[in-house]
Design a protein that fits this description.
Layout (H helix, E strand, L loop, with lengths): L7 H30 L2 H14 L9 H6 L14 E4 L8 H7 L3 E3 L4 E6 L6 E7 L5 E8 L7 E7 L7 E6 L5 E7 L7 E7 L5 H8 L4 E3 L4 E6 L3 E9 L5 E8 L5 E9 L7 E6 L6 E7 L7 E12 L17
Antiparallel strand pairs: 1-17, 2-9, 3-8, 4-7, 4-9, 5-6, 5-8, 6-14, 7-15, 10-17, 11-16, 12-15, 12-17, 13-14, 13-16
Length: 327
């Protein structure tokens, strides 16, 4: 009786099934053999030993674990925080006292608010701006009569809560109006305070801490570096009666602007610029002033520490931290 011949496809399928069965049997024998020589307790001990070698743990890590990993012991330094001390002898209200005693006006993004001063006795007003930590981008104008803007400022702050804006705007020959336009988006509102600066106010306090001024020719740039103990800086800019055009910057690192003020004044002698720039960071700050006017319009700039922080540092290498020079 002749043997039936199988097709080629049938032979290939049979060979493939036999090969798969053989490899499955070999894998099962290997697993059984491994369990026969390694107990569960020995496998747990091995895993625990491997975790301890790398300083790891089997529990879920928290933020405190990552803070303390591989921390090297540093110098013996204790810090109790700065105590803000004003340098001026004039008892003017601090910026925090002004914010606490005055009801600020909220200026929404894209809106305009004005303050009118009809009393001719008011020859200067305080302009303070802050936010809840969001950037500030605003225009501050002084209106003196129809279509007359003798004073303009473009103000930018990276963080309106950490570094507020404080300036004095001269308002001679009233009546005058101060206009603040929030040119930021709707999501970036700002709080504004505009009030008269009378005798023994911020202007007198700022003027009492400066002792000298430097001439900045048209197109020139001057910088003033400050140590970490300086918490705020007083700035006075004026001219001999000519127009004033300049750019004031607070730098923290290379070309890292934390605060920028672009200033225009019709008469730098009649309307000088007074400002307090806050520098609360724990590293040094730099004030940069650029005279953006032509060469024929020099300006006079005075920059000095306004408030300093008295740190309580105890260090093995330096015990007189508060004796650092402020400039």
């Amino acid at each position: 009786m002749p043997i039936p011949q199988l097709s080629t496809n049938t032979v290939q399928m049979v060979n493939m099934a036999a090969a798969i069965g053989i490899w499955a049997i070999i894998a099962l024998i290997g697993v059984v053999g491994t369990d026969a020589f390694v107990t569960s307790s020995s496998r747990s001990a091995s895993a625990t030993q491997l975790a301890s070698e790398y300083g790891a743990s089997t529990r879920t890590r928290t933020q405190n674990d990552y803070i303390d990993i591989n921390r090297e012991p540093g110098p013996m330094v204790t810090y109790n925080g700065p105590t803000i001390r004003p340098i001026s002898d004039i008892r003017a209200p601090s910026l925090n006292e002004i914010w606490d005693s005055t009801m600020p006006v909220t200026v929404q993004g894209g809106s305009l608010r004005t303050w009118h001063f009809a009393n001719p006795v008011v020859d200067a007003v305080q302009v303070l701006l802050k936010s809840e930590g969001r950037p500030i981008d605003a225009d501050v104008d002084l209106w003196n009569g129809p279509d007359n803007t003798p004073h303009k400022m473009r103000v930018y702050l990276e963080d309106g809560a950490r570094r507020t804006f404080s300036a004095i705007v001269g308002t001679p020959r009233g009546p005058n109006s101060v206009a603040i336009r929030n040119i930021g988006q709707l999501e970036f509102p700002i709080d504004a305070v505009v009030r008269p600066d009378m005798q023994d106010g911020l202007a007198a306090s700022i003027a009492s801490v400066v002792s000298r001024s430097e001439v900045i020719q048209g197109g020139a740039v001057r910088t003033w570096p400050f140590n970490p103990i300086v918490q705020s800086v007083a700035v006075i800019i004026k001219t001999d009666g000519r127009p004033l055009n300049c750019r004031i910057e607070l730098l923290m690192g290379p070309n890292n602007n934390k605060q920028v003020v672009e200033l225009y004044t019709e008469d730098g002698l009649e309307r000088p610029f007074f400002a307090i720039i806050e520098t609360p960071e724990a590293v040094g700050s730099v004030i940069r002033i650029k005279n953006t006017a032509p060469l024929e319009f020099p300006l006079y700039a005075s920059v000095a520490p306004y408030t300093v922080g008295e740190y309580d540092f105890v260090s093995d290498s330096y015990n007189n931290f508060n004796q650092w020079p402020m400039l």
